[in-house]
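Page 42, continued from yesterday. The earlier attempt failed because a stray header line got pasted into the input along with the sequence. Redoing it now with the clean sequence only.
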Amino acid sequence: MPSFFNVLLALLVVAPATALAQSNYDLIVGSDTVEVRLGQPTTFETPGGETLDIMLQTQPMQKFDDGVVSFLYPVEVNVTQTMIEAGIKQVMVMTAYGDGVMLQQYRGINPSFLVPMMLNEITKAEVSYGYDMDAADTEIELASGEVLKGMHATMRYLDEVKHYRVLAYGVGDQGVLLVTMADEEFEDERDGFIETVVSSLRLNAGGLGR
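This time it went through. C-alpha cells are written below.
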C-alpha cells in the first residue's frame, strides 16, 4: 500500500511534457514514399500521371486511452504521464497558464478518503496569501456512468477568482482521483477544454477490476 506521506507528495509531481508529434512524416502510397510536413501542402504524381494535392493535418481533438481511463483533449494542450510510485499513476492535462486537469489512478488504496487532504494541499498557498475560500460538496457523473464525489472550492481575493475541484471514485482498494484547476482570468484561453476532458472522461471496463 502506498505510504500516506507519498500520497501527499504525489500531488506535487508533474512530469516534463513529451513531444508526441513530429514535423516530418513519410506517406506511403503503394510502392512510393512521399515526405510530408505537418500542415504544409505538397504534391504527389500517380503512376498514371495525375497530380494530387496532399496535406497532413492533426485532428482538433485527440483521444487519450491508457486502458484504465480515456478522455478527449484539444491537440494544443499537453498530456503527460508519470508513475509516482508503484500503485500510483498520474495523468496531467494542462495549459501554459497552469489551468487543467489532474487524474491519479490508485492501486492498493481507495482514494476517496484523500479528497479533503488534496483540496487542502492545492489551496493552502492561496489561503495563506489571503484568499477567501468557499467549499461545497459536488459530484460528477462520468460518460461511463460512474459517479465521482468530492468538493468544489471557490477562492476569491480582490477581483481574482479561482476554482478547484477534487473528486474521487473507488472500488475496494483502488480508484481514481480527479482534480480540476481553473482561474477565471484565463477563461478565454481555456476555451472550455476542462469541460471537454471531464465530460468525455470514461473509466474503461476492467480498468479498476470491475
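Notes: Helices lie at 4-10, 115-129, 187-190, 193-200.
Reminder to self: strip header lines before submitting.
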